Amino acid sequence: MSSAVPAPATTRSPVARRVAAVLVFALVAALVVHVGRRFAEDLDYSALLRALRATPRRAVLGAAGATALSFLCLAGRDVVALAFARVRAPWPALLTAGFCGAALSNAVGLGGFTGAAVRYRIYAAVGLRAEAITRVVFFMAVGFGLGLVVCGAAAALAESGALAAYLSLPAAPLRGAAAAALALSAALAVGLQGRVLRVGDLEAQTPSAGAFAAQVALTGLYLVAAAAAFWALLPGHAIGFLELLPLFVLAMAAGGVSHVPGGLGVFDAAMIAALHARLPLESLAATLVAFRLVYFVLPMYASAAILAVSETRRLAAPERRESGREWLAAAARLSPRFLAVLAFIVGVVELASGATPAFGRRLSLLAAHAPLWSVESANFFSSIAGVLLLFVAQGLLHRLDAAWWMATAIAAVAFALALVKGLAYGEATMLALLFALLMATRGQFDRKASLTGQTFTASWFLAIALALAGVAALLTLAFRNAPYALEPWWRLEIDAQAPRALRAMVGAALVAIALGVAQLLRVAKGSAPLAERGELKRAEAIVRAQDRADAGLVMMGDKSVMFSASGDAFLMYATQGRSWIALSDPVGPRAEWPELIWRFVERAAAHGGRAAFYQARPETLPLFADAGLRIIKIGEEARVSLADFSLKGGRRARLRYALTRGEREGLTFELIDDEAKRRAALPSLEAVAADWRAARGAHEKRFSVAAFDPEFVAGQTIALARQNGRPMAFATIMTTDTRAEATIALMRHTRDALPWAMEFLFARIMLAFKEAGYGELSLGMAPLSGLPESPAASRWSRIGRLIWRHGANLYNFPGLRAFKSKFDPCWAPRYLAVSGALGPLFALADAAALINNSGATARLA
Predict the structure, then answer these.
(1) 202 contacts 2 by C-beta, under 8 angstroms
(2) In the prediction, which pLDDT does 856 show?
(3) Which of 116, 311, 387, 419 is most exposed, with minimal Cβ within 10 Å?
């Protein structure tokens, strides 16, 4: 299995991925613009509205039913995938993961928002291991690809004549291509049984042909149901369902390949190009709008409602009686990302509503009961509210308390404005539902960070720019025949809809530009100075009260410290180049960790840097995934269970020999706990450390490993081995008051020490700490250890294995693991969580510079 976890997935070459994404996006944008300009000339906005209003209610209900069936099939794919991975999950958790993950993937597409991240959070909460979730996600990805091909090819084979006419191609080659695609899919399903395949950083063994068949069948049913939802909305069913199916599958595939959220523009352009000869353009455009609302927006609201109910159940049920509390908490924790997407969608709807004419009858009713200034003001300020929602959505994604308050206030005010500006009931309903969902999930927006202090990414600015451009194009289409270009924009009349829309659009654009410029001109706050003595004392108190002994490395004084808002937790970090690298997980109460992680990621981004967490533990990976970080395995930590440690048995023969031989050679062991005695021993320890450095031509390292610093050494327990009274080897051990674990911090020996001196010393340490009641002893990490050797392993794993085998001139990686293996430890995986496509490469290089103490200094970022 791969060491990567499925959140977020990445490709094998980040540079190639970025270049390919840019090229695909540019090509897709060009095609969409070309098709859009071609058909927009013939599209009449008023006719489009009439066609949309004429959509029968039974057609909408039929489409909703087909949508429900489609999403049920998507959830069924999770059932098959879990069976393939040989794991089980409670039905409520399974349906929530399947439905909500599919809704988010459909609406947003790939990246940090993917359904894989949703599944990882929920399935991890019900006890599934990362490797099992990887198998599930991998299987579903491969199964979906095959299902798409099989369903499209089968439909094309059945309706080859009609499809050939649509595509202006000969029918015979089309039938041959479809038959070849079916045969190839069957051959792949049979021939790949038991093999290891990889999709991005996800890898797993392929399932049986029967499991593939079940997954492909469910994917096919999902596509058939989705096509049925679209077909139900077509006026008069102008095309047969079987004729529509291959065209629909091709359009869905094009939308997926484009990586555009929801295939927006791509799917629509493909369907218009295929069906414009059969239907009036306005009717086809109305069908596409209705399909977007039913198949994409409605499931997003339903998913957010499911997560809101999870939050309500979690809060209402006493913990002692709530058997599914873990997955309910995980589901509720996902609600901010769903509400962020909904806030963005509602913001776009607000902008579109302000830029298009209201229904004449409703305006006439308003004119009789409301003053003109209120209608004009409501239209203008509702567009401003839409722009603010586009910006606030990122704060919701980051779970900011201020973003929640602002979004709630905007939704409430915009609800009233929607009624005043034109009795926009549909828009008001969306705002009311957003308000209700925000109120139900209030507890999930618990970060007190400043809304104005967050940094917007280039992708977010691009999404806002595209939204504004789309609304501007809609305004042009809606008022193409209106003489607004000849009218003064300040004209205030109840029927002057073109100037009113133009004012709203200009106001919205100015607000967006102002917020964007404010971001660009914002002075970056914060710095990365070394921790002061008072901060180290606060950090030491936190370290002593928790279980992780390696957190004592903060007392080296070579790192910066970021405390949580309450001051009860902290993380230690250093900067090198553009990398902000935190050492391991936050330290302190786990409830404080999410806020610390988010704040650290945001601070790094605010300074134009990349955030990284070096030597992260598996249990913290969901929090890093929530923050959008990429995760790779970088090694394993050796941990010895002291409760099970003894010198009995064949596996301990070498240690027994080291002890008896050492004692015969005059070795003695002393554990120095008293600070006065430790300080008295410092000169002799310094001599041992100096001899160790001279023998290797090395200097003291820093950051993730302990260095011989007199103040640091004096604060640790010291294990000292003497030979005939002369110090020969020593180790310092970090501990906490809980005695859950102890960690070897520093180990040194003279060049003439006995070959078994360190084994003698470590065996004595383990026996002494076992007697003192400690649970585990950590021997530290073996870098690049335990990376997968499969040919299908990720590129990072292959590079890591190559360095492991042939990097002896850089570092004795195998030798370090071999020494630690003598004590029969359990090996726990350790990870790097990092932002950015090229983040792992640069973060690891910068971490190596920090560890090697190669001139890195704390500085203003």
Answers:
(1) yes
(2) 39
(3) 419
Task: Please give the DSSP secondary-structure letter assigned to residue 297.
Answer: I
Binning pLDDT at 50, 70 and 90, where does residue 485 land? very low
Instruction: Provide the pLDDT confidence category of residue 533 given band limits of 50, 70 and 90.
Output: confident
User: What's the average model confidence in pLDDT over 654-667?
Assistant: 87
Query: What is the CATH number for 575?
Result: 3.40.630
Q: Do residues 636 and 782 lie in contact, with contact meaning Cβ atoms separated by under 8 Å?
A: yes
Q: Are residues 370 and 459 in the same domain?
A: yes
**pLDDT at residue 542, rounded to an integer:** 94
**Proportion of the chain in helix, strand, coil states, percent, rounded to 5:** 65, 10, 25
Q: Answer whether 159's CB lies under 8 Å from 171's CB.
A: no
Q: What is the pLDDT of residues 410-430, one digit of tens each?
A: 999 999 888 887 677 788 899
Do 724 and 805 share a structural domain?
A: yes
- If asked whether residues 358 and 209 sit together in one domain, one would say no
Please return the burial class of 821, using the count of CB atoms within 10 Å of its CB with bins 0-12, 13-18 and 19+: middle
**Whether 344 and 364 share a structural domain:** yes
Q: Average pLDDT for residues 538-567, to the nearest whole number?
A: 91
Same structural domain, 563 and 679: no
Whole-angstrom distance, CA of residue 479 vs CA of residue 45: 8
Over residues 107-112, mean pLDDT: 60
What is the number of H-type helices and E-type strands within the chain? 31, 13
Cβ contact 478:502 at 8 Å: no
The C-alpha atoms of residue 196 and residue 131 are separated, in whole angstroms, by 14
- Which token pair is 659? 């002890």
Mean pLDDT of the 534-545 span? 92
The order of strands in the sheet holding 741-749 is: 560-563, 570-576, 579-583, 610-616, 826-834, 630-641, 776-783, 741-749, 726-735, 717-723, 667-672
In a domain, residue 445? The reply is yes
Q: Please report, as a single letter, which amino acid is at residue 621.
A: L
Based on the domain organization, do 457 and 476 belong to the same domain?
yes
**Which residue range is the domain that position 770 belongs to?**
639-834
E strand or H helix at 69, and its extent? helix 57-84
Residue 6, domain member (yes or no): no
pLDDT tens, position by position, 204-248 = 566 677 777 888 888 889 889 999 999 999 887 778 888 888 888
Contacts of 843 (CB under 8 A, 6+ apart): 579, 581, 610, 612, 614, 832, 834
- The residue-averaged pLDDT of 639-655 equals 85
Residues 380 and 488 in one domain: yes
With tokens 């597409």, the residue in question is: 109
The pLDDT of residue 736: 92
Examine the domain organization and report whether 350 and 305 are in the same domain. no
**What total of structural domains would you count in the chain?**
4
Task: For residue 679, count CB atoms less than 10 angstroms from its CB and return exposed for 0-12, middle for 13-18, buried for 19 or more.
Answer: middle
SS3 call for 11 = coil
